[in-house]
Amino acid sequence: DDIGLSTQLALFPFPSFGLFSALSSISFTLPMDPAPSIGTSDSQAVAFHRTVLAPMKSTQVAALSSHTLFLNFAIQNRMALHLLLAFSHSELAIHQGYSDRPPLESYLHFQHGSRLFTQQLESFTHANHIAMMLSFLYLYMFWMRRHPFDVSRLKELSASVLVYVRAFALDELMILDVYFALITIQREINRYSQGSEAKSPGVELGIKRKLERIREEQSFLFELAANGAQQVPATPLMALVAVTIFHALQIYLARSRDSALSQLPVPCEVQRALKDLMTTAYYTVATGPVQLLERFQWALLIAGIETHDPIHRDWISASISDPAIKGIFQLIQSAKGSSGITMRAVRRLVS
């Protein structure tokens, strides 16, 4: 689960322009004059990075630190590994009492790594985004240790990271990862809803925990959605879609077995989920076109069946653009009694 995003990050197509056209300068890829060699090997530099640098830069056990994880990724990519070694040889020299000028070992790796880095920026082929972001990180760590600070290079490096992330919408890939995880959970609830109690002990609790984990680990998404109306720039559309679906799944799970949709009294967890769903759905529809997103339309359907508010119900009816889903919504509304409607009854209606 923890590395599920890596496959999406590893190969993602380049935009239809050269990144150089968007970058004012990349002087941070130019090496500085080296100090003499100190005779350290690459294996010594990696060992130093793993056993000294990683523990220094983390509050966790070194083996579990982010820098150890990054090292394990960097070893698999020549560009990132060269830049990691450029940084590590430089740090090892400082640690051993040499000057803060990078030794020859660092200089040579910096040359090789920055050449591969520049080629990657010029390329129109597929990019390994994990390797690129690690390379940005090691370049940053390298230049932050130079004395005095080269402010212009650090500014160019910072601006280049921003251009790269925006060019490939990398900040939205995590949102897509959550979206696809929610699709999987929707299928799990659907199977649970149609199964028997005897065959699925503990399933509901397991699904609840998955939803809670998403809310905890991806809390930034819910903060984006909660501040949707005030965000500048606007909250990404898929963030709003994902949060809307999340709240619909909370309702779907709570009403998937014995508890009917719209049944009174409404459980507190369903009340909260419906309130948050409606708030986010309003932002979503106002933000951009969601007519073709079937699962967002499904989330509106769940809210429309659950709500007792006629204003919300009318807005949902007007906002459901898919003719099939709108027809199902109208069919369920006409069949729903004062005691609500169970998922079993819904399936019978639409089968």
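^ that was protein a. below is b, sequence first then the tokens
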Amino acid sequence: MPVNSSELVGMVLGTCTLEMLIGRGGMSCVYLARQHFPERYVAVKILLPHLLTQDLDRASFLARFQHEANIIARLEHVNIVPIFTYGQQDQLAYLIMPYIPGGTLAQMLEQQKKLSIQQTLIYIEQAAAALDYAHSQGVIHRDLKPSNFLLYPDGRLVLADFGIARLIQHHEPLSHTLTPAGMLLGTPLYMAPEIIYGKPADQRSDIYALGIILFQMLSGELPFQGENTFALLSQQVQQPIPSLHRLNPLFSNDVDIVLQKATAKEREERYPSAGALVQALKHALSWSCQITLFENTGRILETPSIPYTPPHSTFPLADNPLTPASSRETPQKSSATPFSMWLLCGLLLIVMLAIFLGLHGSSDTPLSLVAVPSTPAETEQAKKVVQRYYKNLNQKDYQAAFELLSPQFQQSIHGLAHFTKGYQDIRQQTLTFKESQLQANGTIVVVVSLSVEAANKQRNIYLWRGILRKQPDTWKITQAHLCQLAGRASAFPRCSPTNQAKWGTT
């Protein structure tokens, strides 16, 4: 048998010729291979006995391999990697599986750092479907991590590597003999406390790991990062997951509650299923002003193909990076147009909060995912108007800011005096552009996130959406909607009939 994995390239195993090493783990290597009968490219996973500890004898090694193959073979789900066949040759045990060219979730996170909310929901829903199905078959994964989630170019996610999966039914003969004494099976970065303590794992152990992965997708960071394995395991056992809201105020405390429950140290306090976790996450995200937020670096898919929609998915897939999410009672259908969804969002915002925050403009690049093609010159002109408007407000030049509103908007606010009065308690306002989009009626929608510091140094986070229309001389702000995302009670008045007129909320 070859002494290292690179020497296996070119070897023929069964009907496959190994062409390239594409992955390696503690006990196995994965190769891209050409299968001759039938002719296609496949992935061949080889378990390497010489990588194992000496106290794991050959019989135990092969028993574990056959056990893994049988587990995977009986799992038939659209989000689980199937196996075509398995065998043994030249002291090598191998699995033949589909070759999936889209990379892994780990590679996507390495490239993007964090994912948009829409990406996260697309992938977490598919992961949950795979896990709930496996759990219903009496199988737990036990080693969930981003590198075990493979991606097809169309956005479909599949779960791979049940290599250390164990049957929940502990009476099965192999369940206690496949792991040599003292071997830590699993990845400490995602390991549930009960596994660290050596207790039997169940489906809630997978839910713990899924909660860690969810935190990583939304924040771009791992919640626990010890200097060594011992420190990391201590954090997993003792420390609660950090607050995502503190890292990014755009996420509400409701999302923190979901993450805390998913990663509770006592498994009895976690969600009973992965599907329950996803539903709670959707509820928490939709509760924040009914808006799905997208980071400037986010993108929906690695390739410009049609997004994959998981079976029975209730999350709407859309190209617009800022659209109303599903409501608390009735989910929005994916066939809704961007205009109708924005109209619904505007009505919801009317009832919730007031309008008009000024701020000091920043030069952040707007998100490039837009549903309607726009002319760069026009959208840049509109953005500069918004930027100038906020700069005037920060400089207390209320007259100059007021003149950037359309005559109709000025009238709805009842003049400069009412307009100025609303900003007396505001100390500083800072914006980040999120979206600029040309509409079919010739208007341009500009979306920004706002960080507002009041005179008492209280800070709040808002999402502001303004509509601009070309006037004879320049672009003017004709409408605006405001939604508080984070912070204490707003320094701005909430929407009553009087305040709606005062602040120009439409």
